[in-house]
Automatic annotation (TrEMBL):
GO terms for biological process: monocarboxylic acid metabolic process. This is Short-chain dehydrogenase/reductase SDR. Keywords: Oxidoreductase. InterPro entries: KR_dom, NAD(P)-bd_dom_sf, Sc_DH/Rdtase_CS, SDR, SDR_fam. The lineage of its organism: Bacteria, Bacillati, Actinomycetota, Actinomycetes, Frankiales. Residues 8-187 form the Ketoreductase domain. One of its GO terms (molecular function) is oxidoreductase activity. SUPFAM superfamilies: NAD(P)-binding Rossmann-fold domains. Belongs to the short-chain dehydrogenases/reductases (SDR) family. It holds the Pfam family adh_short_C2. The keyword Oxidoreductase applies.
């Protein structure tokens, strides 16, 4: 692979599926060696195999972003294989739909732990390599639901709002070290998570056509739309962009 990321090493979390998978594939096309990190080892291996079959460098890493020891093992495996990590894309996520009064503390904590604490843990694990290199790129996948709010998802929306605020704070702290930190809040992107939500009735009475009609560009997003933005934000050319909420949502939220 010959792209602008040749020689760089990336970790993409949640990379066995959907947006993470597309980001991992795109970063490999850009030339980075990519750790395909996910809870789901079998699917992570499939993605890593696909990347390698296309001529890229990839390693499947089974890990839980919510578990600090698991994250540490994943980083060690990636460093052993490819060297220090200077690109991190946090895409692992957990959704949920519940009336506010029905959300249990356990459910609240579980969603916050994967989406927000998982992002914190992965950043904290990888930042020392970036500081050492004097260069780093972090992209946190948040959600357009944290920009506009979303009924019946207050735990999820709170976790993603936390990711946006965390991104802004981390960008201020890490900018002087040559590390940029940005967040992409996707909206209505056609992934297994979105389709599972549809099957569980989480779209309410809405069909895909209803939601497309309310999307200014009149289509669903594709994982590759997010991956294209991720490719740019992790590139050298994006060195003056940090702490930004980089919406990729067909104009649904501005
Ligand atoms: P997806 O297709 O379900 O992919 C998410 C991946 O993350 C899955 O492979 C999942 O594994 C993995 N994962 C979940 N918990 C994990 C953990 N603790 N450690 C490691 N991996 C874990 O979903 P997606 O739509 O691509 O979502 C990617 C990100 O975009 C998420 O953060 C989501 O909140 C955000 N997002 C998506 C949309 C959209 O329209 N699709 C909109 C807004 C925000 P399992 O399948 O085994 O759980």
């Amino acid at each position: 692979m010959a792209g602008n990321q040749v020689g760089k090493v990336a970790i993409v979390t949640g990379a066995a599926s959907g947006i993470g998978r597309a980001c991992a594939t795109r970063l490999a096309q850009d030339g980075a060696a990519v750790a395909v990190l996910d809870l789901n080892e079998g699917d992570a291996k499939t993605v890593a195999d696909e990347i390698q079959a296309a001529g890229g460098a990839a390693l499947a890493v089974a890990a839980d972003v919510a578990d600090p020891e698991s994250v540490a093992r994943a980083l060690a495996a990636t460093r052993d294989r490819f060297g220090p990590v200077t690109i991190l894309v946090n895409s692992a996520g957990k959704t949920g739909t519940k009336r506010f009064l029905d959300i249990t503390l356990e459910q609240w904590t579980s969603v916050l732990t994967v989406n927000l604490t998982g992002t914190f843990l992965c950043c904290q694990a990888v930042v020392p390599d970036m500081v050492e290199a004097g260069w780093g790129r972090i992209v946190n996948i948040s959600s357009s639901s944290a920009q506009g709010g979303q009924a019946l998802m207050s735990h999820y929306v709170a976790s993603k709002g936390g990711v946006i605020a965390f991104t802004k704070a981390l960008a201020l702290e890490l900018g002087p070290a040559g590390i940029t930190v940005n967040t992409i809040p996707p909206g209505f992107v056609d992934t297994p998570m979105l389709r599972r939500d549809e099957a569980r009735g989480r779209w309410g009475p809405n069909t895909a056509d209803d939601l497309i009609a309310r999307t200014p560009v009149r289509r669903m997003g594709l994982p590759e739309d997010i991956a294209a933005a991720c490719s740019f934000l992790t590139s050298e050319e994006a060195s003056y962009i940090t702490g930004q909420v980089f919406g990729v949502n067909g104009g649904r939220n501005t």
